[in-house]
């Protein structure tokens, strides 16, 4: 394994070692929070300690920040390795510096979102963080498994967006940003509308996380090691054949 291959392991390692354990803990507390609230509503008391709600939110904050950070690293790796290879720094230095600036703006927006106290600022910085992720993810270096233009037949192919590690990863990260933005709305709302919205959206997020586990390991299986690239890219991927 060369240095570039090893750097490619940073994102999966952080996801497996930090994000997925956090998901387990956050979901455990989420279940207890709900059970406790329902018990209390039914018979006024519950054996579940009152701290489960605040533990869920404390670790939920960590989870949201970890998912956005891991997503940024997942995007940064292909962008910077391919930019260096394709000499983008010298040939299109404006875009290269724009990308660096966007990373800084996105990280700063996430930090401020964590601290913002008014509704307006939370909306502004949640939007900025989300836009940062989308703009960075739209760079040509990021493999999205989406629409593909075949120059030979001059046709668009829909691609495999439904099993794309990119699209579901971005949606999961956006859901985490939304969770961060609505924390105080959940507490303030007496009709429980925000609470229900939160539960539905984050159940979707959990499914997307499971999907990320599958598509991420598939991608690790598919991406060749640096020294094998020139040989393997001679293969015909559509017909699944390789030269002898
Ligand atoms: C992993 C995904 C998550 C799931 C499945 C989930 C689910 C839940 C559930 C079931 C509840 C209890 C709802 C009820 O009382 O009926 C809850 C409460 C809450 N969640 Fe989450 N959640 C997740 C992540 C997060 C994150 C990332 C945050 C914050 C950044 C967060 C913030 C909150 C807040 C503020 C409450 C109210 C807590 C309370 O009543 O004390 N959740 N969530
Ligand atoms: C919280 C869960 C995860 C999120 C939100 C996430 C998000 C992303 C995003 C947005 C990208 C860039 C787009 C792309 O290249 O597909 C990416 C790349 C990647 N991720 Fe993940 N990911 C997660 C978990 C995982 C896991 C568990 C693995 C493997 C065990 C993994 C392996 C990869 C690989 C191999 C790449 C490709 C890097 C490249 O293009 O060279 N990811 N991830």
**What's the helix-strand series?**
HHHHHHEEHHHH
Could you tell me the strand content as a percent range? under 5%
Tell the overall outline: elongated
Largest sheet: 2 strands, antiparallel
* Total separate domains: 1
Structural class: mainly alpha
Overall pLDDT: 93
Describe this structure in words.
It is built from 10 helices and 2 strands; from the N terminus they run ααααααββαααα. By secondary structure, it is mainly alpha-helical. It has one domain. Helix 3 (52-85) runs antiparallel to helix 5. The mean pLDDT is 93. It binds protoporphyrin IX containing FE (2 copies). One protoporphyrin IX containing FE (HEM) binds at residues 23, 26-27, 30, 33-34, 37, 53, 56-57, 60-61, 63-64, 176, 179-180, 183, 186, 195, 198-199, 202-203, 205-206.
What would the keywords be for this entry?
2% strand; single chain; mainly alpha
Q: Could you give a short description of this structure?
A:
The protein has helices spanning 3-7, 10-43, 52-85, 88-91, 93-115, 119-137, 165-181, 183-188, 193-222, 229-232; strands at 148-150, 155-157. The chain has 244 residues and is mostly helical. The mean pLDDT is 93.
């Amino acid at each position: 394994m060369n240095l570039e291959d090893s750097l490619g392991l940073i994102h999966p390692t952080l996801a497996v070692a930090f994000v997925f354990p956090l998901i387990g803990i956050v979901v455990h507390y989420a279940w207890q929070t709900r059970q406790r609230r329902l018990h209390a509503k039914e018979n006024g008391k519950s054996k579940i300690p009152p701290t489960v709600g605040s533990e869920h939110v404390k670790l939920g904050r960590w989870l949201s920040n970890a998912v956005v950070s891991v997503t940024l690293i997942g995007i940064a790796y292909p962008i910077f390795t391919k930019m260096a290879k394709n000499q983008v720094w010298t040939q299109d230095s404006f875009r290269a510096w724009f990308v660096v600036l966007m990373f800084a703006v996105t990280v700063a927006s996430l930090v401020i979102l964590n601290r913002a106290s008014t509704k307006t600022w939370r909306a502004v910085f949640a939007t900025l963080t989300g836009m940062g992720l989308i703009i960075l993810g739209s760079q040509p270096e990021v493999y999205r498994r989406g629409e593909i233009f075949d120059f030979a037949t001059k046709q668009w192919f829909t691609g495999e967006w439904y099993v794309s590690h990119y699209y579901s990863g971005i949606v999961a990260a956006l859901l985490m940003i939304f969770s961060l933005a609505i924390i105080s709305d959940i507490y303030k709302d007496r009709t429980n509308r925000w609470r229900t919205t939160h539960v539905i959206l984050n159940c979707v997020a959990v499914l997307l996380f499971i999907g990320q586990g599958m598509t991420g390991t598939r991608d690790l299986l598919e991406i060749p090691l640096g020294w094998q690239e020139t040989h393997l890219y001679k293969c015909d991927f559509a017909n699944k054949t390789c030269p002898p």
